[in-house]
């Protein structure tokens, strides 16, 4: 639930009543150790919220929650009679609203320095880098996975321990107005916008409208807070104007632009890490970044500014950045083996399969371009559709051709109707295979692989290329890795 140890009670049983606006049926627990909305990950002593989702209703799982050791459950009036025999219930009119109320109460009691991160690209990796940096300095709470929406943010707030010194929240959106509602709960001391890119264009008129939606994070800052903005992007003026009009006392910028408060002076790409030199708030800072890629180095500048804004010094921040590693599905590398008894038949899989948009796709292709195949190996891209791009989707896919050619990608495999536009635009010698779905493409990719190859997999989640990446890992796991898993 956070990087601080789970010990004692997160909330007292009686202390839950007021923020939930609940009546209690049964004996209130002495306390609850955590907050859960999913019985699969629920820990004994947790408080279970019966949230109603798009495809399921948490009230159907209250019995399972108590069977796994839940201390109590939050349910609505309509279900309380049918569930009262299972255990202690906090009965409310609306379960999600009750969780929001608990999240607001957690924020009100917290003395933590709080950072909120949004952006079309890079918000999760930036949040994870901040988690690592801040955790090295003191008890830190940060959003799990990509819990950044209308239920994820209040859930993460409700889990905020009272003794946390730092907290990092990821804020997402795909419609105007969503960030306003979320940041009103978080009320950060520092707000970061990593990037603005053509994402969710089916819900926005243009990229400028997306920038305006991202800028909603700044009015939610506490008075005297710090706004941090990417100076390199075309929509920077929109973000800067919103930041200056907000309660922020300081507006800081980062990027390759020499006018940025944290600007990239030098970037040296290595196979699995980067060497970075930057000028940050008038100081020269040199550090090793554990995650490869120029885009990761740019985001690390935002981390430097945000961590400095909550009191850390550059030496400590730089030391922690060396241990930042890409997460699964976001650039994590794995060495696999084509022939079980032949250690010389290895290849490298770069798993970028967690979501995609034109900006993150280009960054991933650049990452593949910086990789160095061994022996007769090749650079291979396995790409799927980028979704929610609106009418311009086909052209945005086809435009990736230039990035693939510039990065000397030897072979491209593609899955999905939109990716067909890219596949057909490539020279014939650069085409691996195209298929309607990820499942149909996997055997063709597996058949084409040879020792020394470096394979990068990326697509929107809905394209299901994460299943293709998982399939390759299962099929070609090196023997020593299989032993560890067994």
Report on this model:
This protein is an alpha/beta fold. It folds into three domains: 11-95, 3-Layer(aba) Sandwich (Udp-n-acetylmuramoylalanyl-d-glutamate--2,6- Diaminopimelate Ligase, Chain: A, domain 1); 110-321, UDP-N-acetylmuramoyl-L-alanine:D-glutamate ligase (3-Layer(aba) Sandwich), CATH 3.40.1190.10; 332-485, Mur ligase, C-terminal domain (Protein-Tyrosine Phosphatase, Chain A), CATH 3.90.190.20. Helix content is 34%, strand content 22%. The chain is built from 18 helices and 22 strands. It has a nine-stranded mixed beta sheet with strand order 9-10-8-11-12-13-14-15-16, with helices on both faces. The protein has a six-stranded mixed beta sheet with strand order 17-18-22-19-20-21, sandwiched between helices. The chain has a five-stranded mixed beta sheet with strand order 2-7-6-5-4. Helix 4 packs across helix 6 (152-158), helix 5 (123-135) crosses helix 11 (314-321) and helix 8 (207-214) runs parallel beside helix 9 (236-244). The longest helix is centred in the middle third of the chain and has 16 residues, at 294-309. It is globular and about 70 Å long.
């Amino acid at each position: 639930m956070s990087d601080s140890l789970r010990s004692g009670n997160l909330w007292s049983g009686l202390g839950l009543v007021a923020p939930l606006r609940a009546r209690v049926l049964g004996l209130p627990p002495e306390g609850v150790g955590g907050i859960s909305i999913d019985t699969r990950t629920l820990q004994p002593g947790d408080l279970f919220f019966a949230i109603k989702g798009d495809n399921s209703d948490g009230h159907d799982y209250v019995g399972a929650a108590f069977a796994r050791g839940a201390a109590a459950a939050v349910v609505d009036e309509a279900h309380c009679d049918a569930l009262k025999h299972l255990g202690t219930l906090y009965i409310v009119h609306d379960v999600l609203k009750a969780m929001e109320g608990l999240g607001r109460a957690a924020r009100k009691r917290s003395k933590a320095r709080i950072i909120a991160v949004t952006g079309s690209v890079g918000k999760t990796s930036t949040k994870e880098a901040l988690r690592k940096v801040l955790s090295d300095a003191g008890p830190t709470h940060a959003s799990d996975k990509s819990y950044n929406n209308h239920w994820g943010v209040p859930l993460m707030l409700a889990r905020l321990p009272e003794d946390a010194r730092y907290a990092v929240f990821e804020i997402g959106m795909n419609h105007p107005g969503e960030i306003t509602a979320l940041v009103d709960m978080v009320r950060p001391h520092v707000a970061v916008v990593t990037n603005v890119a053509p994402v969710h264009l089916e819900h926005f008129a243009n990229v400028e409208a997306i920038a305006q939606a991202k800028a909603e994070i700044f009015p939610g800052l506490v008075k005297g807070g710090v706004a941090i903005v990417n100076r390199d992007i075309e929509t920077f003026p929109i973000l800067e104007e919103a930041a200056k009009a907000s309660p922020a006392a300081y507006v800081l910028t980062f990027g390759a632009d020499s006018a940025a408060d944290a600007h990239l002076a030098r970037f040296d790409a290595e196979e699995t890490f980067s060497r970075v030199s930057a000028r940050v708030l008038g100081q020269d800072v040199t550090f090793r970044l554990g995650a490869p890629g120029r885009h990761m180095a740019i985001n690390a500048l935002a981390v430097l500014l945000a961590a400095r804004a909550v009191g850390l010094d550059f030496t400590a921040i730089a030391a922690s950045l060396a241990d930042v590693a890409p997460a699964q599905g976001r650039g994590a590398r794995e060495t696999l083996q084509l022939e079980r008894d032949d250690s010389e038949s290895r290849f490298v899989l770069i798993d970028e399969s967690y979501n995609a948009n034109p900006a993150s796709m280009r960054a991933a292709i650049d990452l593949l371009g910086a990789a160095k195949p061994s022996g007769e190996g090749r650079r291979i891209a396995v790409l799927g559709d980028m979704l929610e791009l609106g009418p311009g989707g086909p052209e945005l896919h086809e435009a990736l051709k230039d990035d693939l050619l510039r990065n000397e990608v030897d072979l491209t495999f593609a899955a999905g109707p939109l990716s067909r536009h890219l596949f057909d635009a490539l020279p014939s010698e650069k085409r691996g295979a195209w298929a309607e779905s990820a499942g149909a493409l996997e055997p063709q990719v597996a058949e084409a692989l040879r020792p020394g190859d470096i394979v990068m997999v990326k697509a929107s989640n809905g394209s299901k290329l994460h299943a293709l990446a998982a399939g390759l890992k299962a099929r070609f796991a090196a023997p020593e890795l299989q032993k560890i898993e067994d």
